[in-house]
Write a structure and sequence with these properties.
Helix content is 39%, strand content 20%. The two termini are 26 Å apart. The chain has helices spanning 14-22, 49-57, 87-90, 120-151, 157-171, 205-208, 211-221, 231-237, 242-251, 258-269, 294-301, 303-307, 317-323, 326-331, and strands at residues 2-7, 39-44, 61-63, 66-71, 98-104, 197-202, 225-229, 272-278, 282-289, 309-316, 336-338, 348-354. The strands form 3 sheets. The chain has a 6-stranded mixed sheet, sandwiched between helices. Helix 1 (14-22) runs parallel beside helix 8 and helix 4 (120-151) packs antiparallel against helix 5. It is built from 14 helices and 12 strands. It has a domain at 291-354: Ubiquitin-like (UB roll) (Roll), CATH 3.10.20.30. The structure holds guanosine-5'-diphosphate. This is Ribosome-binding ATPase YchF. ATP binds at residues 11-16.
């Protein structure tokens, strides 16, 4: 599944948010370094279409797409130099597809701030600097190794060239996502600043309902996406039944929980989308990249589906709802037979035909 690594300074609310993510009680305590074990939590990508499909097909169960989150320890200034928890922990997010940075926006004199004051801009700079330094360290270690391997003709020189270019950008203080370096040759290094970033502002209720303040914070991180949530409310929401949860959200001016937003924006940021399959057993969402063609999409279900792909019967979700059944959609010409060059659209309801 899509994996998002959570980073942030100590005491910004990562554990609290993560508790909500996993419904498990991981340690959330009011002191730095409470969260030293990496944890993984999986949340479902909310998709109301699945319940509709399950109604139409009489499905026994619903299987939404999933987003997994990796919680790592807080980063402190100097983390990349081995002070605090350091690089060992950053290693846990090397394999993440994206990074969510939790930024403290709540005021609470009972909760210690590691730098003594609540200052989102300065906090983000601290984290981003540490990530740049961590990437520099990774490259400084990789470059001599690459040089040796090229001498032994075991490596393509383009790998070294990319590494040197990336190092030079980082030395100027530029995160790799903002540099015009082709990172493909050094993808295996999992450089952190090359990953897509989402900013999660953990704020008080007062900020949640203050559009001007939110716009101000969002502007600090644009063009990256900003999610606003109150981690404490998120952890309360998980214990409520759907009606009470909706009521609590509404009382804070929200229509969607922060975790749902995070899953949705994570999908978007990574250029992912879902297509749907449905039958009496299950209604299910499958994760693919935008722009994928039908055979690749079929391959997500089973490699045999891709290898033996013949065609796909596709009905758009809207057409299926309008016609009310597959038979009716076919009768009205709304079921299309698509071949191997068909580019999948979000919410396509699909049945693949294939040879085994
Ligand atoms: P972490 O070090 O980033 O994992 O931070 P924690 O999740 O352990 O939170 C540190 C402290 O801040 C805990 O005492 C939390 O209860 C508190 N906290 C977390 N989120 C909020 C919030 O939105 N508002 C307030 N007032 N306190 C919070």
């Amino acid at each position: 599944a899509l994996t998002i690594g959570i980073v942030g300074l100590p005491n910004v609310g990562k554990s609290t948010l993560f508790n909500a993510l996993t419904k498990n009680q991981v340690l959330a305590a009011n002191y730095p370094f409470a969260t030293i074990e990496p944890n993984v939590g999986v949340v479902n990508l909310p998709d109301p279409r699945l319940a509709t499909l399950a109604g139409i097909f009489g499905s026994e169960r619903i299987l939404p797409a999933a987003v997994s989150f990796v919680d790592i320890a807080g980063i402190v200034r100097g983390a990349s130099e081995g002070e605090g928890l350091g690089n060992k922990f950053l290693a846990n997010i090397r394999e993440a597809d994206a990074i969510a940075q939790v930024v403290r926006g709540f005021d609470d004199s009972d909760v210690v701030h590691v730098d003594g004051k609540v200052d989102p801009k300065s906090d983000m700079e601290t984290i981003n600097t540490e990530l740049i330094l961590a990437d520099l360290e990774t490259l400084e270690r990789a470059i001599p190794r690459f040089e040796k391997e090229i001498k032994g003709k075991k490596l393509d020189p383009s790998v070294l060239a990319a590494a040197i270019e990336a190092r030079d950008e980082l030395q100027k203080g530029t995160p790799l996502s903002a540099a015009s370096v082709d990172l493909e040759p050094i993808a295996e290094l999992g450089l952190l600043t090359a990953k897509p970033f989402i900013y999660v502002f953990n704020v008080d209720e007062a900020v949640l309902t203050d559009d001007a303040k939110k716009a101000e914070l969002a502007a600090l991180v644009a063009p990256a996406e900003a999610v606003f949530l109150d981690a404490k409310i998120e952890s309360e929401l998980i214990d409520l039944d759907p009606e009470d949860a909706a009521e609590l959200l509404a009382s804070t001016g929200q229509t969607e929980s922060g975790l749902d937003q995070l899953a949705r924006i994570g999908f978007d940021t990574l250029g992912l989308q879902t297509y749907l399959t449905a039958g009496p057993k299950e209604s299910r969402a499958w994760t693919i990249h935008k722009g994928w063609k039908a055979p690749a999409a079929a391959g997500v279900i089973h490699t045999d589906f891709e290898r033996g792909f013949i065609k796909a019967e596709v009905i758009s979700f809207a057409d299926l709802v309008e016609t009310g059944s597959v038979a009716e959609a076919r009768a009205k010409g709304k079921a299309r037979m698509e071949g191997k060059d068909y580019v999948m659209q979000d919410g396509d309801v699909v049945e693949f035909r294939f040879n085994v």
